[in-house]
C-alpha cells in the first residue's frame, strides 16, 4: 500500500470480527512501529500485548470498576479542553457522529453507558497493545515520540489489513493492568491500542471524521505564489 493511501485508509476502528490475530502479525506491526523517530533516538516505548484469557480478565474488571464509578487514575497527564473551545466542540461532534451511526439517542443513558463500556472492553478486539514508558522520564517528555510511534503502528496495521483504535479508555485503570498483566511500577502505562480485523458492517466503522483543511491552519512565508 502506498504511504498516502495508507494514511487516508487509517481510521479508528471500534468494531472487530470475532477472529484472532496471529502473534507474528502483531510482531510485524510492532517491528514497523519502532521505526518511528524519537528525540535523540531515545525510543521511550515498550509494549505489553494482551489477548485471550488475560485480555478477557482485564475487560471484565475494567467494566466492573467503571460500573462502580471508580475514579479513573491514568498514569499519564490528563488532557482537558476548555468548555467553550473549538476542541470541546470537535469532541462533542465526534460523540454525535458515533452515537448517530450506532443509533444511540441522546437521552438513552443505558445505551450511552453500554457504548462507554465497549471502550473499556477494548471494543471487544481480539488483542490490545499497551504502550508503556519509563517512569524516570518526565511527564511530557516522551509524548511526542509516543505519538509518532502510535501513528506508525496504526499505519503499519492498516497496511496489513488490520484495524486499530488508539484508546485512552483502555488505560484509565492502570492498577488492573498491573495486577493482571504484571506491568511493573517503574513503567507508566500511557496508552492502549485495540487491534484486530475490522468488521466492515459495524456502523461506527463507517463514519468519516472530518478534518480542518491544512490550508486553513497554515501560514506561509517566503513562497512565490505563482505556479
Ligand atoms: C491519544 C488518543 C486517545 C484516544 N482515545 C480514544 C478513546 O479512548 N476512545 C475512542 O473511541 N477513541 C479514542 N481515540 C480515537 C480518536 O477519537 C480518533 O482518532 C479521532 O476521532 C479521529 O478519528 P479517526 O482516527 O477515525 O481519523 C483516541 C485517539 C488518540 C490519538
Give a description of the structure:
There is one protein chain. By secondary structure, the chain is an alpha+beta fold. The protein has one domain (3-77, 120-205): 3-Layer(aba) Sandwich (NADH Oxidase). The protein is 39% helix and 13% strand. The chain is built from 7 helices and 4 strands, in the order H-H-E-H-H-H-E-H-E-H-E. It has a 4-stranded antiparallel beta sheet with strand order 1-2-4-3. Helix 2 packs across helix 6 (143-159) and helix 3 packs antiparallel against helix 7. The chain is globular and about 60 Å long. The model has no long low-confidence stretch (mean pLDDT 96). The chain binds flavin mononucleotide. Residues 11-12, 14, 94, 119, 165-169, 191, 209 line the site of flavin mononucleotide.
List keywords for this structure.
227 residues, alpha+beta, NADH Oxidase, 4-stranded antiparallel β-sheet, 7 helices, 39% helix, 13% strand, globular, binds flavin mononucleotide
Give the SSE layout.
Layout lengths: L2 H7 L13 H11 L12 E6 H16 L18 H17 L6 H12 L6 E8 L8 H17 L3 E5 L6 H8 L5 E10 L31
Antiparallel strand pairs: 1-2, 2-4, 3-4
Helix pairs in contact: 1-6, 2-6, 3-7
The chain binds flavin mononucleotide.
How many H/I helices?
A: 7
The portion of residues assigned to helices is 25-40%
Shape: globular
The CATH topology turns out to be NADH Oxidase
At the first level of CATH, the class is Alpha Beta
Assess the beta-strand content as a share of residues. Answer: 5-15%
Please give the largest β-sheet. 4 strands, antiparallel
CATH homologous superfamily placement = NADH Oxidase
Domain module count: 1
Q: Could you say what the CATH architecture is?
A: 3-Layer(aba) Sandwich
Return Rg in Å.
18 Å
Task: Spell out which ligands are present.
Answer: flavin mononucleotide
**How are strands sequenced across the largest beta sheet?**
1-2-4-3
**What's the helix-strand series?**
HHEHHHEHEHE
Strand tally is: 4
Gap between N and C termini, in Å? 30 Å
Amino acid at each position: 500500500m502506498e504511504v498516502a493511501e495508507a494514511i487516508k485508509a487509517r481510521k479508528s476502528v471500534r468494531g472487530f470480527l470475532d477472529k484472532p490475530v496471529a502473534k507474528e502479525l502483531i510482531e510485524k506491526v510492532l517491528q514497523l512501529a519502532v521505526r518511528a523517530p524519537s528525540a535523540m533516538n531515545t525510543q521511550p516505548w515498550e509494549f505489553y500485548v494482551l489477548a485471550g484469557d488475560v485480555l478477557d480478565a482485564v475487560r471484565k474488571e475494567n467494566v466492573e470498576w467503571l460500573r462502580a464509578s471508580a475514579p479513573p487514575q491514568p498514569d499519564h497527564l490528563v488532557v482537558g479542553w476548555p468548555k467553550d473551545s473549538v476542541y470541546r466542540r470537535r469532541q462533542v461532534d465526534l460523540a454525535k457522529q458515533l452515537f448517530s451511526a450506532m443509533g444511540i439517542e441522546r437521552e438513552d443513558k443505558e445505551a450511552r453507558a453500554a457504548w462507554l463500556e465497549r471502550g473499556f472492553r477494548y471494543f471487544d478486539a481480539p488483542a490490545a497493545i499497551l504502550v508503556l514508558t519509563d517512569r524516570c522520564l518526565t511527564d511530557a517528555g516522551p509524548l511526542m515520540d509516543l505519538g509518532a510511534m502510535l501513528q506508525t503502528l496504526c499505519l503499519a496495521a492498516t497496511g496489513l489489513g488490520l484495524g486499530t483504535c488508539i484508546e485512552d479508555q483502555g488505560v484509565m485503570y492502570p492498577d488492573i493492568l498491573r495486577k493482571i498483566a504484571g506491568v511493573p511500577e517503574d513503567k507508566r502505562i500511557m496508552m492502549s491500542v485495540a487491534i484486530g480485523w475490522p468488521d466492515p458492517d459495524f456502523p461506527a466503522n463507517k463514519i468519516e471524521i472530518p478534518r480542518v483543511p491544512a490550508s486553513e491552519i497554515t501560514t506561509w512565508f517566503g513562497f512565490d505564489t505563482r505556479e
